[in-house]
């Protein structure tokens, strides 16, 4: 009877685990979960736990360490979120990926005095230049959780596809795309975006970038010279259209979405827009603006709808695609770059019937069509339900990471205003006069009970007043090892400074640290 009343110190079983010689006594008070997660990360990184190693059951390790099972479960969850471990059913939890060793010569940030894309007013190639620079934490927008790529499901689908292919199937395919993928895309869009289409209307493309290039070529041949774009809006998309010979014309975006009255006034016969989750502000084109836009398109205007990340939503209901409302006036494009990986280079383009032949010919003369094998594997993933299961999985992961970023922003950048957090893979923060007014309230809290938090908020409030250039803030962050896009990169006209921050690609602890470093960078300005 007395055994049940023994304190841990009196028990016969020692505290600690032979596994990695873990000693819970080394964990800081209130930090046991992060301590355990760090020990596991370090062991995977240094090879103590190579790929394929089976980890102890959570219940067993918790008993050995004399901690609650939740501590071990959460530590395992953090590594699973980073893609380093995974559950394997009866095999238990297994190490599935280790970080690639980083050569010592690779710095955590560009060397002092080194050229960066922030030193020039010319925006040509700035995104590619930033992507190539070293850093410790990358908060650039536009990248999904690449560690979550469904490798096992992809391999199963690829094996099944290869088993069914005939020798003739390895020849040249139709430039419009493999029929199986076009059928799968039509079914996917009907289920997820409310779009009714025929497989014959679908052109498979190498991502949205190629869709824009093909449309620019076809529209220019049809006499179009100018195209309206959202402002702010994607710098990369704008440059893609300009490279195709079209002149981008800025049309302002406000909380209701693209200003359709300004679109009419611009005189541009075509417009590129992101109505379901505007890049980079995250606003949704509201009902009245949609009706105005559809009236404009019915009068002969061409709408290019870039539905780049509409599947990723967290706190709002789905938004119908414009294409579902006016097929004859909307060119619709999407891809799996934000859902699976940009490396696949697979997307789709639906155009009005009058443009279909011209777009198909442009695709044929561009590259003869996408690779057939990748198309067929993706078609199988779509038809089997695997892609939707993957979407549900990454949506949960992305939401958790978004929540971490929001908490970190409240702590380290309390004077910033957050935009577009209800959906997508990124959010935008701005520092304008109204934001500064909100931040000044934090300075007034200097006599609050928590003096340290009040002091941090006051520093942030002062820093908001000093953000004359978001390029300068992004440069200061890069010097600390953190990448982020200045909002001004995506503007054509002047506007409040800000940053565009991606949260999907990195684990939670990196997001939190990266935002903290942004706060440090802000205070140095």
Detailed description of the structure:
With 525 residues, the chain is of the alpha/beta class. Helix content is 43%, strand content 12%. The protein is built from 17 helices and 16 strands. The chain has helices at 32-45, 58-65, 69-81, 126-132, 151-164, 179-193, 207-221, 235-243, 260-266, 287-298, 353-367, 372-384, 386-412, 433-444, 451-466, 470-479, 508-524; strands at residues 85-87, 93-95, 137-138, 202-205, 226-231, 247-254, 257-258, 270-273, 302-306, 330-335, 347-350, 417-419, 426-430, 482-483, 485-486, 498-502. An eight-stranded mixed beta sheet has the order 4-11-10-9-8-5-6-7, with helices on both faces. Strands 12-13-16-15 form a four-stranded antiparallel beta sheet. The longest helix has 27 residues, at 386-412.
Main sheet: strands, sense, barrel: 8 strands, mixed
| Alpha-carbon distance between the two ends | 66 Å
Could you tell me the radius of gyration in angstroms? Answer: 26 Å
Which segments are poorly predicted (pLDDT under 50) over 5 or more consecutive residues?
1-14, 102-106, 435-465
What gross morphology would you assign? globular
Strand order of the largest sheet: 4-11-10-9-8-5-6-7
The helix content, as a percent range, equals: 40-55%
> Which structural class matches the secondary elements?
alpha/beta
Characterize this entry briefly.
This protein is α/β, with parallel strands linked by helices and 525 residues long.
């Amino acid at each position: 009877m007395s055994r049940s009343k023994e304190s841990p110190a009196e028990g016969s079983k020692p505290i600690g685990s032979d596994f990695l010689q873990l000693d819970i006594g080394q964990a800081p008070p209130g930090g046991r979960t992060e301590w355990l997660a760090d020990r596991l990360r370090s062991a995977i990184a240094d090879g103590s736990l190579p790929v394929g190693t089976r980890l102890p059951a959570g219940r067993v390790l918790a008993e050995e360490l004399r901690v609650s099972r939740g501590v071990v479960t959460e530590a395992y969850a953090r590594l699973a979120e980073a893609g380093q471990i995974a559950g394997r059913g009866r095999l238990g939890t297994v190490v599935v990926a280790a970080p690639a060793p980083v050569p010592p010569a690779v710095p955590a940030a560009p060397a002092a005095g080194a050229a960066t894309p922030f030193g020039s007013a010319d925006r040509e190639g700035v995104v590619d230049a930033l992507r190539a620079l070293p850093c410790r934490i990358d908060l650039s927008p536009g990248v999904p959780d690449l560690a979550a790529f469904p490798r096992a499901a992809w391999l199963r689908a690829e094996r099944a596809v290869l088993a069914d292919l005939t020798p003739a199937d390895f020849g040249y395919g139709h430039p419009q795309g493999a029929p199986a993928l076009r059928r799968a895309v039509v079914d996917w869009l009907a289920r997820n975006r409310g779009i009714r289409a025929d497989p014959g209307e679908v052109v498979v493309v190498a991502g949205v970038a190629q869709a824009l290039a093909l449309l620019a070529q076809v529209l220019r041949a049809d006499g179009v010279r100018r195209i309206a774009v959202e402002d702010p809006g994607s710098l990369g998309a704008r440059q893609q259209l300009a490279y195709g010979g079209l002149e981008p014309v800025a049309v302002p975006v406000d909380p209701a979405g693209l200003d359709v009255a300004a679109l009419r006034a611009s005189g541009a016969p075509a417009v590129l827009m992101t109505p379901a989750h505007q890049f980079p502000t995250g606003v949704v084109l509201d009902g009245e603006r949609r009706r105005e836009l559809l009236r404009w398109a019915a009068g002969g205007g061409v709408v290019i709808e870039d539905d780049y990340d509409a599947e990723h939503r967290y706190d709002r209901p789905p938004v119908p695609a414009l294409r579902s409302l006016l097929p004859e006036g909307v060119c619709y494009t999407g891809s799996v770059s934000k859902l699976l990986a940009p490396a696949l280079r697979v997307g789709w383009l639906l155009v009005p019937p009058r443009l279909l032949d011209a777009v198909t010919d442009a695709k044929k003369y561009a590259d003869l069509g996408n690779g057939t094998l990748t198309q067929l594997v993706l078609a199988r993933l779509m038809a089997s339900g695997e892609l939707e299961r993957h979407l549900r999985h990454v949506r949960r992961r992305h939401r958790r990471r978004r929540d971490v970023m929001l908490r970190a922003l409240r702590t380290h950048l309390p004077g910033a205003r957050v935009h577009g957090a209800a959906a997508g893979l990124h959010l935008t923060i701005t520092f304008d006069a109204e934001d500064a007014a909100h931040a000044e309230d934090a300075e007034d809290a200097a006599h609050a009970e928590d003096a340290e938090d009040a002091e941090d908020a006051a520093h942030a409030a002062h820093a908001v007043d000093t953000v004359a250039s978001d390029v300068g803030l992004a440069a200061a962050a890069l010097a600390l090892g953190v990448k982020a896009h200045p909002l001004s990169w995506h503007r054509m006209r002047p506007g409040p400074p800000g940053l565009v921050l991606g949260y999907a690609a990195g684990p939670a602890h990196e997001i939190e640290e990266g935002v903290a470093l942004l706060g440090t960078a802000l205070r140095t300005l």
